[in-house]
Write a structure and sequence with these properties.
alpha+beta, 3-stranded mixed β-sheet
């Protein structure tokens, strides 16, 4: 299994098997990196420009071949247990679902991330748990999500001035 620099497992044997489409691939199949950051890698950008900025691996999906490949998550739900994140406005609470890196190949590493809830994240790094395990949400995760949902509902509730005066009496 792939490991972090500290030696903990990341939950997959091959990050590219679960990696998605490159974040830099435009809807029309062009390389956004070459279009917007040409000065960061002039040789790469010149090659892409000569081919109309077409992604040189997009059709094949052989993302390893691209030096600027990146596949990141929006971290809205855990890929392992499926629990969704609930964010609270105006609170600096730790998110339920966090970004989990799958690739640690040194300086040349492609950024490949998925979303894992804090509980699955700990299981993956602390044992042989895999991100593709058939897992249910941890009871603590469910409790925290429901607590946050209840607080959201309180924030959204509307009370008239008359109701608030009655409540203070």
């Amino acid at each position: 299994m792939e490991r972090t620099p500290d030696g903990t497992p990341v939950g997959v044997d091959d990050p590219y098997e679960v990696a998605g489409v490159c974040d830099r691939l435009t809807d029309d199949g062009r390389c956004r990196f070459a279009l917007t950051r040409a000065s960061d890698d002039p040789e790469f950008s010149a090659d892409r420009r000569a081919e109309g900025y077409d992604c040189h691996v997009g059709a094949d999906g052989e993302w390893r071949a691209c030096p600027h490949y990146r596949s990141t998550t929006d971290a809205k739900a855990c890929v392992r247990c499926g629990i969704g994140d609930v964010r609270l406005a105006h609170e600096n609470a730790r998110p339920l679902v966090e970004e989990h890196h799958l690739s640690y190949d040194g300086d040349d590493a492609h950024e490949i991330t998925v979303g894992l809830c804090r509980w699955c994240h700990a299981k993956v790094h602390g044992s042989v748990a895999r991100i593709d395990d058939d897992a249910s949400p941890d009871p603590e995760a469910i409790a925290e999500r429901e607590t946050r949902k209840a607080r959201q509902q309180e924030e959204l509730s509307f009370g008239t001035a008359a109701e608030r005066v009655d409540d203070d009496s």
